[in-house]
Amino acid sequence: MKKVVNFLGVFISIFIFSQTKSVKKNPVKIGSKVVVKKASPKPKSNPDLVIINKDIPVLIPQKKDGKFGYVNQKGKFIIQPEYHIAVFFAEDCNLLNSPNEKIRKFGTKEYATVEKDLISYRVDNTGKRVYQFKDTDLGQCKYGDYKQQLYQAYILNGFYGIIEKSRFVNAADYRDYQIYPQYQYLYILEGDDVADPMIIASQNDKFGVIDVNNKVIIPFEYSNIKRNFSWKLGKMFDVTKDSINYYYIDAHNKAY
């Protein structure tokens, strides 16, 4: 019996020892650091790019001493005048559809086209030249989004009026006219809203702007208003009072 007890004691000791060796303890890491990625800093906004009128561009082309630059809505030059040509910040469809995918981004409305010494560039809102035009980069513009004008100018007895093409039938019936002919000149500006376009008008040898309801938007006080894309691109009018110095005004007749 004593031998049996001794044998069991030895067996139990061996069993416990073997179990102790087979169990591996994972080392406990003390003071392990958790890596937290810092959020990338937000780009700082430019305090010079103030917005007083949300309906017009933040940067507006302006001419000084025969050269163009860009002013903010307070009239401060942000991009100094050094260019022969400077247009509004707007899309360039030739670059947007370029065969070179890397430069398509320069066709977005974040950039503007300028020209100096017969070389055309795209600049950003700091004035940095980010791209120089190359013929091989230019793609084909897509005209699928073109909106057909609803209205057109109509001349009767030497005076200009406005008709809606789809419903105009009888020139002898004044009711068929949107605006009965009464102006020296009318020109419908291209814009996004074909149902309510801006119309350059001339009366008593002065130019102003009216809408299709014959409401005066810009008073008749200018010697000329250019028939260009300033309204479509920038919701502004390119005007002059002396037929020499042109500048931009908004739809409230505020000059910039």
Enumerate the spans where pLDDT stays under 50 for 5 or more consecutive residues: 1-30
The share of residues in extended strands comes to 25-35%
| Molecular shape | globular
What number is the mean pLDDT? 87
Largest sheet: 4 strands, antiparallel
**SSE series:** HEEEEHEEEEEEEEEEEHEE
Q: Can you count the helices? A: 3
Helix content: 10-25%
Taking the alpha carbons of the first and last residues, their distance comes to: 115 Å
Give Rg in angstroms: 36 Å
Structural commentary:
The chain is mostly beta strands and 256 residues long. It is built from three helices and 17 strands. The protein has a four-stranded antiparallel beta sheet, with no helix packed on it. A four-stranded antiparallel beta sheet has the order 11-12-13-14, with no helix packed on it. A three-stranded antiparallel beta sheet has the order 1-2-3, with no helix packed on it. A hairpin with a 2-residue loop joins strand 8 (151-156) and strand 9 (159-164). Mean pLDDT is 87; it is low at 1-30.
Q: Any key phrases for this structure?
A:
4-stranded antiparallel beta sheet; 17 strands; 256 residues; 3 helices; mainly beta
In short:
This protein is mainly β. The protein has helices at about 1-20, 95, 230-235, and strands at about 60-65, 65-70, 75-85, 85, 110-115, 120-125, 130, 150-155, 160-165, 180-185, 185-190, 200-205, 205-210, 215-220, 225, 235-240, 245-250.
